[in-house]
Amino acid sequence: MEALPARARVYLVGVTLLGLCCLLPLPGVPRPGVLASLPDPRVPWWPVVLLAAVYAGCERLARSRLAAGPHPGGTFHPVLLAGAFLLPPTAAALVALPGALLLPVEHGPRLARRLWRTGRLVVAVWAASLVHLKTGGRDAVAQCDMPGALATAGAAVLAFCLVLTLLDGGVLAPAPGGVPRGRPVAAWWRLFLGSLAPLTVHGLAGLMTALLWRSPYGPVAALLVLLPMGVSWWAFAQYHRERAAHQATIRALVQAVDIKDGYTRGHSERVGRASMLIARELGMDDERVEMLRFAGILHDVGKLGVPTRLLTKNGPLTPEERRVIELHPEYGHEMVRGISFLGEARAAVLHHHERLDGKGYPYGLAGRQIPESARVVAVADAFDAMTSTRSYSRARPVPVALEELERCAGTHFDPRMVKALVRAIGRTGWHPAVTADEPLRTPVPGPVEPVTGRPGARR
Asked: Whose C-alpha in 104, 209, 235, 328 is 20 to 30 A from the C-alpha of 411?
């Protein structure tokens, strides 16, 4: 707790107290004997205990090495939502308590994370159960009234999602890099929309569990509904594990390039971002957009095969040195050709220095002979090179760089890609960071080279 800022500690204590209030019985309801913590004495303990045990077991499995998923914590909401559809608010909130409170926390501060995880889930389940109760969902589930049950379950899921995203938004707002200043509503809205679809699927599974629980088949059949949900979640988790491995591979390659050529630190990430802007502007699907981001990030990985003295040399290159640097696309292609998930990004690594008029390298391809991915990355690469401050040149203003790209369109670059970048930056803007760690040096006297006049980083 001591490691948290004061504002975060106050927020955490508030959410924890709110969760404790949700565990208290509702006023005006008889509470005799051992059922004093439940809002209705007709509610037995065993559904609460059974659902709490199932939820804790699912959470434990989610954290195991067999099925480690991308979002630890709250990965099995169907059990919580089934409790919200079957039990009164306080009893439903108790279902989340053991799993959220007792399961281990991977990163510190552990106490704060444990309390936060517990508080947000207890409040969200309580709110979902209350909405479900007030809209008549309990009777609809008991009578297996499907239209009514779907409508009331939808309202409960909406409340569940709204509470989670509001609480999460409160955490993100004061955090560095969290909710952008002046735009908290837009950021929370995006968070809400991103959570609504998966929680809706979880809500349907929870509703099926509740309906079977109330049917003649009973709780055992109801819990079997969770099996296919668990299998599908496991497959989804494996996909994200593979994706995380892909990202780690790319990060390792980029870090190696940055260490070798410190003058271009951050350049690869910005080229990836610009490539994404172009791809989205051209209407490419999400899979291709992601692939072009990989292409932009890895386009200069072949520099690992180029002597460092050439990459960091001040002054003009000799013809022999230029030929060595012009080998870096082929070096890069050899490095990534065996990485199957990169797909067409491999072609972009090999051909991003080709020119539309056939005067590029390494193979002198022209026009449509150049792969589309390489034409995208070529524009993104040149744009970032012009708008980034290096140790040997100052950054050009973004409008000047765009004008230069338009001037070279048709000879150096594909006009379609240039227009796409101009339109995208016109809408979103561009804020390049300084890539050199050293103070700006005095440029070497000599003629100014065109935007693609020097291979590699020396454009």
From this structure: 328
